[in-house]
Amino acid sequence: MGILALSVEAQRAASEPARMPPESGNKDGTAGAAPSGDPPGGAGRAQHPVGRFVVRRLAQGVVTLVVVSIVIFLLTSAIPGSPATAILGRNANPQAIAEINHRLGFNKPLAQRYVDWLGNALSGDLGNSAVAIAQGSPTAPVWPIIRSPLADSATLALVTVILLIPLSLLLGVWSGLRAGKWQDHSISTITLILISMPEFVIGALLIAILFVATNLLPPVSLLAPGVFPLIHPNLLVMPVLTLLAVSVAWTVRLVRVGTIEVLQTDYVQLARLHGIRERKVLRRYVLRNALAPSVQIFALSIQYLFGGVIITETVFNYPGIGTQLVQATSNHDNTEVQAIALILAAVYILINIVADLLVMLLVPRLRTAQ
Amino acid sequence: MTRENSAGSAGGESTPDADSALTRRRFLRGVGATGVGLAASGLLDVPGASALTHSSKSPLGGPTPKTPKKGGTLRIGYVGNGTSETYNPAVANTPIDSLHGYLVYDPLMRVGPYHQLEPGLAVGWQHNSDASVWEIRLRSGVEWQDGKKFTADDVIYTFHTMASPAHLGHSAVVGFDMHNVKKLSDTLVRVPLKAPNADLSSLFGYFNAAIVVQDGTKNFTKPIGTGPYRLESFTPGKQSVLTANRNYWDSPRPYPDGLVLLSIDDDAARLNALLSGQIDICALVNYTQAKAGVPSNYDLIVGYAGAQENFNMRVDQAPFKDVRVRQAMKLIVNRPAMIEAALNGYGSVANDVPGPGFPHYDSSLPQRHQDIAHAKSLLKAAGQSDIRIQLQTADGGLGQLQAAQVFVQQAQQAGFKGITLKVQPVASYYNPTLLFTKMTFAQNIWAIGSLNSFYSQALVTGAALDETHWNSTSFNTLFQRAQAETNPARAQQLWNQLQAIQYNQGGYIFWAEVHNVDAISSKVAGFGGPGVGWAYPTGDQRVWEWGFSR
Questions:
Q1: pLDDT at A339 exceeding the cut of 90
Q2: What number is the average pLDDT over the span A255-260?
Q3: pTM
Q4: Out of A29-33, A198-202, A272-276, which region has the weakest mean confidence (pLDDT)?
Q5: Given an 8 Å threshold on Cβ–Cβ distance, is A90 in contact with B434?
Q6: B83–A135: do the CB atoms touch at under 8 Å?
Q7: What are phi and psi of B44, to 5 degrees?
Q8: How far apart are CA B314 and CA B524, in angstroms?
Q9: Are B239 and B263 in contact (CB under 8 A)?
Q10: How far apart are the first and last CA of chain B?
Q11: What is the DSSP string of B512-550?
Q12: Mutation target among A103, A215, A220, A234 for the B interface, most CBs of B within 10 A
């Protein structure tokens, strides 16, 4: 799934919803107030816990990224074979391999190659495609090669997420509120079926229904290079539906559980006993607190959708970054693999930070407590 | 390849079979370098284009080809090779890359659907009395796509680029006395050889060696060829957009005005793209899908894929030191059953010596069949009734692993319980140290370009892929004589002797020649050769023939 570095705060928030609804701060007197250990009017930084949090998480992110970059570099170097053997095939002779390795600079020590690579990457130069250089191209920058698949994957992920979040919240909360009733059972059964079906089965079913049976949509997303996918929305429908079906099952179930947990908390009971209207209880107390753990689930889904959807990309021949990475790996294009892996790692780390931040904004206790 | 994939007649279910595409690519890349050169008669003198034969047949199955009409944009879905795709013939080692070559460039020699050679940019080959010096006559009146005239300089430059060991056509010019290769006129090149070779033209039908590039070309990102199409845009791993070269020497070809080549790696997605009208030709249909058939307004074309599958025994190691043990192994194999199980039936039965259809192949050798009783008596005589041997293999694609499993099963059914299987990871089996050539009992797939190339790469002493460790001085001498023999009848006799030795005593069990299946829309006509798929490296992707029906 990628790099999962859930912060302690986020994990706590995910497992233990804040007991205090944000706008009823004083009702049970635990949240909202400044922690006793914090000197009043203390250091300015203490008054901006969100800012401090962001700085700390960004710093952690950078460290994580450096560690990840080392792992990526070591792993790509450790894969048996090389661009030279990939290009020369079974007939690779030592002389030809040496010639190509020299052209690629593989004769330098590993540590030096890593430092050169990282230095260049930091200055925005992701290097040249190792395979293209080995094939004799004078220059073949990686960025133009991976730019379009990145954009295509981002589009696919974004469109899916835009549909996924409201749908999961709607169905999850509704199912949670109707827990034990037929609506809940229906949703649970459907999501269980969806969870049990791998992406390629869902993809194949959609192709069978929307192409073979009804001929409504093309079964293959043949996007010309450089063409923005949203220009041909019909090519996006089946991949998006597939991903939505796969993701929504998990998110709905987890939102449902979150909702049920919040419904059972003392403060919701108390609010109801106070005679607050049910609609208000739901909106102010239940939804917002159920959302906090959901944020992490959505973050995981987005990470998966952005780069982890190789099977869906393959079924529909969608030109995304996942397929690009698999192809680069099978072709031993080390520089391309490193560039894609590094970018994906950075995106994953960033998604984690944003998710943690969202949780913090949703749960006041986290941004006020030390 | 053998996994249960079905898109079948209903066009239906698709399965995420990226791995099969990768496997196939891996395999195809592998065989690429193993065969060099297509054999033909040593002397082929064709006075100009008028003598061209356009054999537009599909040799094993498919509709009758018709002459296409002019116009239209032909869209082809193909197994791609990711960002490694290239238009550089020096490093092209997959079918899509050889297709690139044939779209934009021209070969010295074209190859027909039955492995026969036809003139390409070279129209005549003449040698001196002992075949140690050759004169290659080139087609006149050919222009490069940038308007320059095609001359002997271009061919000589191409030969020089092939002198680099990293050029995949390198072995074709190894025998050249390169410093003395001379231009005699714009259309005549003189090539002195280090040793006589009566079969020179056969080396230049094989893709990497065949393609002629323009004098001075170093950068292949915007290729200029003499070929049927002009490259307008290329995104490796995605698509090539090409327009017809209306100045092509083989007019009225190409028939379409344009051609789009799309990389669609997944077998099911590629076939679905055809069935939904997104492409006109789906190359490389997987065998399970082919078996299921296609709807009525589509057709399957079956042709020779150019790959020959084998088991190999080291004749210098026990138990295969004893020729009777080798003969027994050859008799254990039920070839048709193996083809059915490992290739879904898409293969022709082979006869332990490779190259049916190629010049000098000895088709008079009796087809070997399974004969367990005979095998048992041979093993008994050799004191190996309880033979214990491990067959080593890897899942190199194309039913290789399945064939090994079938072999062990057939052996065990015959009572040879000591014959077992060991599966190695592909990467270590086919690694640069050529581990697979060092094993006592192993397996491989050959894409041979000619008998000449196979024998020089597999059977002469010091051969690069010396799997059977044959190592016989008298055999080497016989091979040199066969190679240098300028009298066709005497050459055939010598080749027959070589093949008889291998058939009776050799360490090779060749069990199948693999087929390629393409699917086309009924709108498509004039596909030449064995369809459009997988002919690399044997060179018969006859792209200039394709177009739309009238």
A1: yes
A2: 90
A3: 0.79
A4: A29-33
A5: yes
A6: no
A7: -135, 110
A8: 48
A9: yes
A10: 35
A11: EEEEEEEEEETTEE---SS-SS--TTT----GGG-EE--
A12: A220
